[in-house]
Amino acid sequence: MMIMGIRLKNDSAVADTGKYSIRNPVRFAFETRKGIDENIVKEISAHKNEPEWMLAKRLASLKVYNSKPMPSWGPDLSELDLENIVHFVKAEGERTSDWKELPGYIKNTFDKLGIPEAERNFLAGAGAMYESEVVYKGIKKNLEEQGVIYTDTDSAVQEYPELVKKYFMTRCVPANDNKFAALHGALWSGGSFVYVPAGVKVSMPLQIYFLMNHPAFGQYEHTLIIAEPGSQVQYIEGCSAPLYAKASVHSAVVEIFAKRGSKVRYTSIQNWSKNVYNLNTKRAIVEENALMEWVGGTLGSGVTMLYPCSVLAGRGARAEHMNVAFAGAGQVKDNGAKVIHLAPDTTSSVISKSICKDGGFANYRGLLSIARGCRGAKASVRCDALMLDSKSHSATQPHLDIREKDVVVGHEATAGRISEEQLFYLQSRGISKDDATALIVRGFIEPITKLLPLEYAVEFNRMIELEMEGKGVVG
Amino acid sequence: MAKNSLAIKNLHASVEGREILKGIDLEVEKGTVHAIMGPNGSGKSTLASTLLGRSGYAATKGDVLADGKSILGMPTDKIARMGVFLSMQSPAEIGGVSFSSFLRVAHAAMTGREKPLGALEFSKLLDAEMEKMGMDKSFASRYVNEGFSGGEKKRAEILQLGLFRPKYAILDETDSGLDVDALKVVAQGINRSKGPHMGVLVITHYNRILKYLKPDFVHILVNGKIVKSGGAKLAEEIEEGGYSKYC
Q: How many structural domains is chain A composed of?
């Protein structure tokens, strides 16, 4: 949500809810028919005027997709009917770096989300993706002059083909990684491309907002972040979609290359409507002494499967994973983290917080793997679940695969309810039960919200409160 | 019944089906300090919890009036907003919520403000109160009661007394676990806050805090009933002779 933010000024709860569920009439310049086959893939590629090598990559991915069964583990995906979904929709208008040039209804939607204002106030660069393609991208001039690239991935294919060829679904997330990564490889469109040259430190965050408006739609943005040695960058993305009766799917791939001594923070706040299947593959390769931070907030959506992965490939590489998931009525949050230690003296920490209410289910599914020879590696995993009623439940499935003796590994899991003692204390200070509950929940997720820029943190707390009041942000 | 009092009338209360309070009559007028003393298990803390409407504490008979209005059966937060403050024996910890942000919200609720004071204005107010209680400024940013020592928790409770200026203060074993110096600071804090606008009900085992607070009335609670009432002298007798002659 990017944008979270910004529009905080005294919005009423209703208006606040409203802004995430703005539903525009469906208008588009071009869309494919429903389903997935070779012709549709070719059509998407031709429409984007892609070079031959990208089409070849798409077709190879499609083959992998067709050859792989649906995952036999995890949440139930049997209701997901990919043949009845439109996988590519191009909105009206051309990509622009001037908000004024956007079609009025698209501009209004992003205006309501506060995006242009946020860009002026606290961002190094901003983007907006509507349906399948990025409609707006802007970056501060001084960063451009230092060689920082912030554009959409489609443009990067045209403008920086060598970089894309080298990094796009090659050694980080290859198509054969999993069925949805393969699907993504065939159908991908839009997303962010970030390149930070060696030694350049981008102090303000780069941000993009993904919006799905089309019903029964598939969004497959591809984000590629390359942080050269010694560089620093923070990237934030927000997502939302209005509610439609028909299910949609969001299947992103994020590939991050954190090179020697670099620092990358990737923050994602997802607030899809409740009939969206949110199935992603996000991975970072973290080299010597580099630091990779994943900060996530997953609200909304029906089924979420999300396990950002850090591959600690160089000595002294570090990864920190922090996620908050909220599961309300009918929602399944299958969230987790994968950390693979492949070098000595690598460190990782995972903090996962989940809140369940009204029968929601939150599962932590994690993998911590330490290869033989990773002497001096340190890893900790902490999962805390908070259940707001007795209908809701949570589970923890931490898989540990430790092949080295000289390591320090910690794992902690707690599951609990809001204590009567805490409620009584706050109520005895005149705070109503609902406000007291909200305050306790806010405290529970504070380790993660404190990592967000202030505007995001305030709005994220607000979204959680709306969820708790059952005004669910979107549908 | 006086309008300016917290009046407990023939109050009976049960916990888990067992009657703990067996008919308490007590009227705390504004401007007075009452002390309730009693051995363990006599019902002192049950009285405090019942007055604040804590769940699990069922008033089965009688009534409690704040300024002439019955508060029995009201939700705890409403009772608090009527001006009844409870300083707890072991206040709960709230992780991830800073003491100052909690106090700002609580201050608004307890003083009848529609909106909390501005952050800056409140922070000035809080700094001043913390200084009076000898608390380091860093407490403002620490999580509510988390990692506070026993003495720090009590200071933090009495700080709230000064901040909220309630009409009625129930102080549940505020002296327990305090060393001599901390006891003095806490007692001074109570004395600063009390006055003609406030009625104070001190619940304690021992006379030592009463030496500072100088109660107008002392009541001995045994087995869910007040068995004797008197002046400050009564507390001294208890200090010497214990409760055995009342049990």
A: 1
Chain B residue set in contact with A, beta carbons under 8 Å: 52, 54-56, 75-77, 80-81, 85-86, 88, 91-97, 102, 105-106, 109-110, 143-144, 160, 164
d(CA A432, CA A408): 44
CB within 8 Å: B105 and A421: no
| Within-domain flag for A27 | yes
Q: Kindly state the DSSP code that residue B216 receives in the 8-state scheme.
A: S
Q: What is the ipTM of this complex?
A: 0.97
The pLDDT of residue A16 is 42
The CATH number for B91's domain is 3.40.50.300
The closest CB to that of A439, out of B75, B97, B160, belongs to: B97
Rounded to the nearest integer, the mean pLDDT of chain A is 86
The two three-digit tokens of residue B49, written as one number: 């919890």
Q: Look at residue A449 and tell me if it is in a domain.
A: yes
Which residue shows structure tokens 């049960």? B14
Which domain, by its residues, includes A232? 13-306+418-468
- Amino acid identity at A154: D
Residue pLDDT, tens place only, A272-282: 777 788 899 99
Q: Give this prediction's pTM.
A: 0.84
Q: Chain A residues with CB-CB distance to B under 8 A?
A: 419-422, 424-433, 435-436, 439-440, 442-447
pLDDT, tens only, A252-291: 999 999 999 999 999 998 887 777 888 999 999 999 999 9
* Residue A427: pLDDT band with limits 50, 70, 90: very high
Which of these, B200, B203, B170, B169, lies nearest to B42 by C-alpha position? B203
In this structure, what DSSP letter does residue A198 have? T
